[in-house]
Amino acid sequence: MINAIDVWNRFARERRGAASAEGDYWLSKAKDYSRLIDRRWAEGDDETREFLKRLFADRSLRSVLDIGAGTGQWSLFFARLGVNATALEPSAGMRAVLKENIAADPASARRISVVEGRWPETDAGIFDVSFCSHAMYEWDDLAAAIAALRERTRRRVVLAIRAPYADDFYARLAAFLCPEAPYAGTDFPLLQAALFQLGIFADVCFESRDTAHVRKFDTVDAAVTAIRTRFGADGATVRELIVSEGYAEPDGRVRIPMRGKTACVSFKP
Ligand SMILES: C[S@@+](CC[C@H](N)C(=O)[O-])C[C@H]1O[C@@H](n2cnc3c(N)ncnc32)[C@H](O)[C@@H]1O
Prior knowledge:
Blueprint lengths: L3 H19 L7 H13 L4 H10 L6 E5 L5 H8 L3 E6 L2 H12 L2 H4 L2 E5 L10 E7 L8 H10 L1 E12 L4 H9 L10 H10 L5 E4 L7 E4 L2 H12 L3 H10 L9 E4 L2 E8 L2
The chain binds S-adenosylmethionine.
The site of S-adenosylmethionine (SAM) has 20 residues, from helix 4 and strand 2.
């Protein structure tokens, strides 16, 4: 049997190393990211938001930590439900847009505090609910990150994480690199296996809409460099997968649509 925590940590370490070498990845991308989230949310609710609305219908839940708050849409969502939100975010680029977005809604802004920092290194206090949407992919000591969630959360932990289909490019690459865990990236199946290993039987609901995100690169070389370092893979393998799976366009650009959904994983601490 594989050790899911070790496999997760291995992938997360590569991603974290690549991200810190890049500097603030979000500095030039935060505005576009914010627009992407706004567009997606304007299409209608998803199962994660429906779940959270039901959860916070319990008015005794007063505080939430939004881990990796990004451009602030989730913190605003919580504030509009009448919950006090703490937005934990390490990227200055993301925090700048987050602050703009919050300032545009002064009634909600008074319920939101912004903290610079990373999970689990930054201890921002104890909250009724801890929430993390797509900000766990660099947790390179998963057991410590989950232990911190349990210690610093009173009532419920909620994690929204990518659940790729088997034909997703990154899932295919991860399976190639780690055949013993053929779904292995820092994704839902591995998180669930790791939680089982830690004795946590989480509730899971999947969003019914597919992920809309497309990763774009100007050249095959740029794609190979970016992806190779994130997975600790050799360049030839990544290049061969990009070309053989048809992601290189005739003009040399690369477009890789993420194929999958978001899984909403939650458990009592
Ligand atoms: C894909 S964005 C998700 C933003 C937001 N949660 C959302 O769902 O729209 C990932 C965010 O997580 C942040 N992040 C990455 N690693 C983190 C960590 N260890 N702790 C807190 N935030 C982290 C990044 O700076 C980035 O803003």
